[in-house]
Write a structure and sequence with these properties.
heterodimer, A: 117 residues, mainly alpha, two-stranded antiparallel ribbon, 5 helices, 9% strand, B: 906 residues, alpha+beta, six-stranded mixed beta barrel, 53% helix
Chain lengths: 117, 906
């Protein structure tokens, strides 16, 4: 990904979730991970749509798992970060860190957390 | 694919929805994910929570999935989410096109909603024009295009004799039998004539209209009865007392009682057995005829070869073209005439014509004109819409150019503009469809009563399809104008163009051209209306020869069993006169077998004795049987001599009163009183009628008729001379100058006292009769005028719009002029002149085209030619003034421009 471009907020969350989940990242788990950690509700459609966009940008790769070894078992679409994806993730988080450096973020008013809490 | 095995399932609608939105490659992945979490939630929190969650997920996924879809469209490279197998690429192409279309529609809808005034203007304009079109089309479809309600109606044909004047005439029974026997081109053939008889119920008498016919009629028409049977050849002979009823009559008077079949009813002084009832919707010859009986045995008409009293209708044999039938019939008729006539002059002529043509053919011209008129209205409306679309597009020019430069693609933009207008057109057509219901209702209310199939007129599915068609075509046409302009826009030029919504020269010329065309078309319509109005005014001023005010008329039908001879008939009329003539409000009473304006009559050939003593043959003499006092009652002036009176009875020498036309024809300049003529040309023992009086001439069929020679015979004498029972059916005429309608109850009660079972029919005043005769010209004048006004209005709105746009566009220029010293008057005149230039050109073109087009109206014009100068002048003048008014407002606004404000505008 060319330098100087940023990931969108949700795109970032998806990639971070995948980073957390390692080999187990598919629709359900990604969605749940973001929902748990951010506290905001996430639709399965947005996960897949964002995933598709990131695949197109070359930041994610997708593969289809073998059907589960149960009767009528399904196969799943597994997402993983590509090399470029990892780089982009590093880049974005680094940028964030630099921007937030020095700020006492906790002192900032966080309306969303207040509402959610 | 996993599916929840037990227990509650995910909400079906939501599941189907999300699966529909997705495509085969990814459908299962997404759906299975949803199902998986659903199961877990089911276990953890119960079905309510799980289902709610599922629904919310689907709802929130709709937009992202659609975005995902759109994103997919552009990318089919490796590394994309899914690799599409080649067989699916065509499907993806179609999906892509569909998606693009959906996006266009949504974009168009958004753009339309953003500018509600524009949308409302377009929809309103188009609704008016399309409503009128749908209405006229519905009428034309119902009357002209829909087939008649018979079996294979295109094979039904009628045969007529043709007189020396070229008009169609009826056939005699004997001729019909001979023709039928010899003809091979007809499978079956029937002959009939009108009848109007009295039905007797307990509550009183009612007069029905129907026909008496040979029994093959129902075989010819091919429609089976609803109950019972129809008339059968071989069993229902002439004079048999059977009757078949129409469905409406059966419903109305007998309560749809099926046990009526086989019962007898009291009919026309005797009884008849009801043998059948026809199904609803069936009629012959018109919906007014409600019963069918075998040909009557009475009257010598059946035995007289020369009595041309029957109409005939037959079913052509398979694959026989009309020309062959006509040729065969002509040969047969000529042979029969030659065999039977003593002095056949070889002038037999016949005509075979399709039933459909006979029944509705007369309306063809009228409907053609109406269709042309509404098509013009629609074209004008479309031109209008194209104009405002152009001006709107030019205002948005900069925006469109920028969008194009940013990659929207010119083709895409054009497509969006067209889609926008298609949407507007469809919306307008929907409103127009609603309007058309009302317009059709107005149409049928105004239409003359004798317009055929008028009760079958309605807006139906075909009209709906037609509405959609004209919406799509029109939307394409007027949407393409701005689309073409938009796709030609060069970006830099658009952005650099100063001033609000400037337009290229081509665009401006298109605008003006459209306005000119609109005005021209409106002028054509206004011209047509002007001619028709002029014609109608002339028609209305014709004097028919009798009093159009203060005369009451009603039909009388004496029952044949009660009035069997001349004396009883005479007694009836004398008694009526005695009872009525002194009543308040009544000044005169009379009887006649026929009325002016009734159109029907008996015509005969005759021989006159000239003043020099020679004999002259003539034909087409109208015969009428009258009682004394008729001329006074109906207001026909007695010019010379005397009326018929009581002394002109059975024993005295035959007399007649003739009209002026006949007198001038045979005894010009001299005195016709005392001259003689006869109806019988057989030679020696003829009855010569002596003329005792001459009355003014009247018109027979309508105000546009010519005057024919008419002879009036005293009733009793005519009956005794010719043995034809006359006077049983005819008209009672009551002169009541102050208030004819007010004496109706008096007349009714007095007649009821004489004969309780005698119904009076067709009660109307002479004024009504005249009005009825001009109903058709009045109708078409009204309708064409309405369309002309509508067209002019739409065209004027177009003129105003273009003028206003031009002024707005050139505000800066005007400001400069004024600041340089031009007075506001000069600006006003300048703008007016440019506007009038466009309008004037339109008027000129319209007048020239009108000269050609008005020839189509020539058959409908009375008393003037299609090039009548006064009508053209009136039309041109009217449109000029209107055009001036339309240009005036914007011109005045131009003259009010404040130079400072104008110059400041960018």
């Amino acid at each position: 990904m060319p330098k100087g471009k940023f990931l969108g907020e949700f795109e970032l969350y998806v990639m971070l979730a995948i980073a957390h989940l390692a080999a187990d990242a598919y629709g359900v788990t990604i969605r749940r991970k973001i929902e748990e950690r951010t506290g905001r509700s996430v639709s399965i459609g947005s996960v897949y749509a964002t995933g598709a966009r990131l695949v197109e940008k070359g930041l994610l790769a997708v593969s289809v798992s073998d059907p589960l070894p149960v009767k009528g078992g399904r196969s799943r679409k597994i997402f993983r970060l590509t090399r470029a994806g990892e780089a982009a993730l590093r880049h974005s988080t680094e940028m964030l860190r630099r921007m937030a450096d020095g700020l006492n973020v906790d002192d900032l008013r966080d309306d969303r957390a207040e509402r959610a809490g | 694919m996993t599916r929840p095995r037990r227990g509650p399932r995910p909400p079906r609608v939501a599941r189907v929805l999300i699966r529909r939105l997705l495509w085969s490659a990814d459908r299962d992945f997404v759906s299975d994910d949803l199902d998986e979490e659903f199961e877990e939630l089911l276990v953890a929190h119960g079905p309510r929570t799980a289902r709610g969650w599922y629904r919310r997920q689907v709802l929130r996924s709709i937009v992202p999935v659609i975005a995902w879809r759109l994103g997919r469209r552009g990318s089919r490279q490796p590394g994309a989410m899914t690799q599409l197998p080649t067989s699916a690429s065509a499907k993806a192409d179609r999906m892509g096109a569909l998606l693009r279309f959906r996006q266009d529609v949504r974009q168009a809808a958004r753009s339309v909603v953003r500018d509600p005034r524009y949308a409302a203007t377009v929809i309103a304009t188009f609704a008016l024009a399309s409503g009128a079109n749908i209405a006229v089309f519905s009428v034309v479809n119902s009357v002209l295009l829909k087939p008649l309600p018979y079996e294979e109606p295109e094979r039904l044909a009628m045969a007529f004799r043709v007189t020396d004047h070229g008009s169609e005439s009826r056939v005699s029974y004997l001729d019909f039998l001979d023709w039928r026997e010899a003809a091979t081109s007809f499978d079956t053939w029937a002959a009939y004539s009108e009848s109007a008889r009295t039905w007797l119920a307990e509550s009183g008498a009612e007069r029905w209209r129907g026909i008496e016919t040979t029994p093959e009629l129902f075989e010819v028409l091919g429609v089976p009865p609803l109950h019972g049977r129809t008339l059968q050849p071989g069993s229902d002979d002439i004079g048999d007392p059977v009757i078949v009823l129409s469905h409406a009559l059966w419903q109305r008077r007998f309560g749809s009682d099926p046990s009526l079949i086989g019962r007898t009813i009291r009919f026309d002084g005797g009884t008849r057995t009801v043998v059948g009832v026809m199904p609803p919707g069936f009629y012959f010859p018109t919906p007014d005829e409600e019963y069918w009986i075998p040909l009557a045995a009475s009257g010598r008409f059946l035995e007289q070869r020369g009595a041309w009293s029957l109409l005939s209708i037959g079913r052509l044999a398979d694959d026989i073209p009309m020309e062959r039938a006509q040729g065969e019939l002509l040969a047969i008729a000529q042979r029969v005439d030659e065999e039977n006539a003593e002095d056949w002059d070889g002038s037999t002529a016949v005509r075979v014509e399709r039933r459909h043509e006979v029944y509705v053919g007369d309306t063809r011209r009228l409907f053609g004109i109406l269709l042309g008129a509404v098509a013009l209205v629609l074209t004008i409306a479309c031109a209008n819409i194209a104009n405002i679309a152009l001006t709107r597009a030019s205002v948005r020019r900069r925006e469109l150019a920028v969008r194009a430069a940013l990659g929207a693609g010119r083709g895409r933009l054009a497509r969006q503009l067209v889609t926008e207008h298609l949407l507007l057109a469809l919306a307008g057509a929907a409103v127009g469809l609603f309007l058309s219901f009302a317009i059709v209702r107005g149409f049928t209310a105004l239409a003359p009563a004798d317009l055929p199939r008028i009760d079958e007129v309605g807006v139906d599915l075909i009209a709906f399809a037609y509405a959609t068609l004209i919406a799509l075509l029109s939307g394409l046409i007027f949407g393409s104008a701005p689309a073409i302009m938009a796709s030609r826009t060069g970006l830099s030029r658009a952005i650099n163009d100063a001033g609000r919504g400037s337009m290229s020269r081509v665009g401006r010329r298109t605008l003006h051209g459209l306005v000119t065309a609109q005005v021209a078309m409106a002028v054509i319509l206004v011209l047509g209306a002007s001619l028709l109005v002029n014609s109608f005014l002339r028609l209305s001023s014709v004097r028919p020869g009798f009093d159009t005010d203060g005369v009451l008329i009603m039909g009388v039908q004496l029952a044949s069993d009660r009035y069997q001879d001349s004396e009883s008939i005479e007694a009836f009329y004398s008694e009526v006169r005695r009872r009525l003539v002194d009543r308040p409000g009544i000044e005169g009473v009379g009887f006649s077998s026929h009325l002016p304006f009734s159109g029907s009559g008996i015509s005969a050939s005759y021989v006159v004795e000239t003043t020099a003593g020679g004999r002259v043959d003539a034909d087409d003499l109208q015969l009428e049987i009258v009682g004394s006092g008729y001329f006074d009652a109906v207001g026909i002036p007695m010019l010379v001599g005397r009326d018929v009176h009581g002394d002109d009875g059975a024993g005295s020498s035959p007399v007649a009163v003739i009209n002026q036309t006949m007198a001038d024809l045979h005894w010009p300049g001299g005195n016709a009183v005392g001259a003689r003529f006869t109806l019988d040309d057989s030679g020696d023992d003829v009855s010569w009628h002596t003329v005792v009086g001459v009355v003014g001439s009247t018109l027979k069929t309508g105000l546009d008729d010519v005057r024919h020679p008419v002879a009036y015979f005293p009733r009793q004498q005519f009956q005794s001379t010719y043995g034809i029972i006359s006077g049983r059916s005819g008209y009672l005429v009551v002169r009541a100058p102050t208030a004819p309608a007010a004496v109706i109850p008096t007349v009714r009660s007095e007649i009821a006292r004489i004969d309780r079972n005698l119904p009076l029919t067709d009660i109307r005043t002479s004024a009504d009769m005249v009005a009825g005769s001009v109903a058709a010209p009045r109708f078409r004048t009204l309708v064409v005028s309405a369309f002309a006004l509508l067209a002019l209005l739409v065209a004027l709105v177009g003129v105003y719009g273009v003028m206003a746009f031009a002024v707005a566009r050139r505000t800066r220029e005007i400001g400069i002029r004024m600041s340089l010293g031009a007075s506001d008057r000069r600006v006003l005149v300048h703008v007016l002149r440019s506007g009038l230039g466009v309008v004037g050109l339109g008027i000129a073109i319209g007048v020239v085209s009108g000269l050609a087009a008005s020839r189509l109206l020539s058959a409908m014009l009375f008393g003037l030619t299609p090039t009548d100068l006064s009508s053209y002048a009136a039309a041109a003048g009217f449109v000029t003034v209107a055009g001036l008014a339309a240009c005036y407002l914007p011109a005045r606004r131009a003259s009010r421009v404040e130079p400072v404000v104008a110059l400041r505008e960018e």
